[in-house]
Design goal:
Its EC number is 2.7.4.14. With about 190 residues, the chain is of the alpha/beta class. The chain contains eight helices and five strands; from the N terminus they run E-H-E-H-H-H-E-H-E-H-H-E-H. A five-stranded parallel beta sheet has the order 2-3-1-4-5, sandwiched between helices. It binds adenosine-5'-triphosphate, the ligand O=c1ccn([C@@H]2O[C@H](COP(=O)(O)O)[C@@H](O)[C@H]2O)c(=O)[nH]1 and magnesium ion.
């Protein structure tokens, strides 16, 4: 079975999780946040990757693709028959992209990349006020996450842009305005 996939990318705090939750509710797409899957794996008793994942999350660096891709693939297999998957926060660097392509080519139909663009100062302020107790929502980790985003993730968005796959939605606006533009891409 070939699964429809929409990648959702943008800086930390740009609203990826918020928008994906709304799409999931309205369009029978399943939201798979790579970060959430890694946080769950970090907490899983007996996981051999817990300490490694924690180190990467705190430092804003990127977990090797073998781990993240396996978590995503397992979640997709477990979901059953749905319209597609919103893969939130992945692929984040060249390693992620190459590993995903090696493992998933032929198993997925990549529809487009939803790029939520937002100025970094707004994103940082949103993360600092998110109130979810994330270990990486502090000034120090956020600085590192932004460096990683600019140096490794933005080039991946540029890569997709070159093949015409990117749909940019400006997400510094109120959620309902952002979502109204996103809906047009799924309708
Ligand atoms: N358009 C918006 N306007 C104002 N606040 C927003 C908007 N979108 C999201 N937020 C808020 O900003 C915070 C970050 O949003 P969210 O968790 O969706 O971002 P994210 O892109 O998934 O971040 P991360 O990459 O860190 O996981 C949350 O507290 C959310 O409620
Ligand atoms: O594909 C991924 C996704 C996430 N990470 C790590 O998790 C944190 C948090 O990710 P969010 O998308 O903000 O929830 C991120 O900074 C990375 O350390 C990853 O390695 N690979
Ligand atoms: Mg998120």
């Amino acid at each position: 079975m070939v699964h429809n996939v929409v990648f959702v990318l943008g800086p930390p705090g740009s609203g990826k999780g918020t928008i994906c939750a709304k799409i999931q509710e309205d369009f029978n797409y399943i939201h798979l946040s790579a970060g959430d899957l890694l946080r769950a794996e970090r907490q899983r008793e007996g996981s051999e990757f817990g300490a490694l994942i924690e180190g990467h999350i705190t430092n804003g660096t990127i977990v090797p693709v073998e781990i993240t891709c396996k978590l995503l693939e397992n979640a997709m297999k477990a979901a059953g028959d749905v319209r597609g998957f919103l893969v939130d926060g992945f692929p984040r660097n060249q390693n992620n992209l190459e590993g995903w392509n090696a493992e998933m080519t032929g198993k997925v139909d990549e529809k487009f990349v939803l790029y939520l663009s937002c100025p970094v100062d707004i994103c940082i302020s949103r993360c600092l006020n998110r109130g979810q107790g994330r270990t990486d929502d502090n000034e120090e980790s956020l600085k590192k996450r932004v460096v990683t985003y600019n140096s490794q993730t933005f080039p991946i968005i540029e890569h997709f842009e070159k093949s015409g796959q990117v749909r940019e939605v400006k997400s510094e606006r109120p959620v309902e305005e952002v979502y109204a533009d996103v809906v047009k891409l799924f309708s």
